[in-house]
Request: fold
Amino acid sequence: MRRSLTELANEHGSDKGTVGPSLDWGAHNYTDVYEAYLEPLRELPINLLEIGLGVTGDRWRSKIVHGRNTGGASVKMWRDYFANGRIYGIDVNEAAELDGERVRTFVADQGELDDLRALTEATGGIRFDVIVDDGSHRPDHQQVALGYLFDFLDPGGLYFIEDLQANGYGDGARGRQACEDVRNTRSLLRAIRAGDDPPRPHALPDPSRLAGEIEHVGLHVPRVVPVADEARGLLRRQRGQRRRGRRAIAFEPDSERLGVLRKRRR
Reply:
């Protein structure tokens, strides 16, 4: 029997699944959403690009590399899921140990246009069927990459952006994923979905052109699965059911964590 994307994520220690690399690192439960979009492509010879590979190195110490995750967990997950696909990846750290017959990685910063241009030149300007942004999670970096790489997405292709936390202008966010120079990427996607101009400031070079290329915008709120609770079997709380007088789980407005854009078919 073929394994699901969630099973492959959990095996390799990716936090895209329901377990994560260890009991100390929670999971995002993104794989059910991914598989709903990607299962029809599973047997096809697709090209997939992932931004952010979860490897440690001189430019960035990736804390997710521990337990079941020996580095590049999601690349391994995509490789196993798309048995006929080619997987490309970029990271600020070198990840040649992941390279193989169907996997090719590059050192690049998603927030630097010169790096992205070098990537598309090195790959011969190929078009990708799927692009996954699991990089720095900074809104300015997400928008720079989206504004450039969407042109290299095939018509009908899918562009995913993970971890759309409140981390942009006016959000009061702090830390390495925050940026007050641009608005939060989620707010831009919500505006595009509504047919409105994206709020400023942003880092999109031509938002009107981008919006015209987008057929669909989906914003998803996967249920976060705390590892310790899963280990204890407290699944009722994950399902939002009442337990011992506790209130059912409710999600705050504007709490979408995973965005997906489908490029318009010509």
In short: The mean pLDDT is 91.
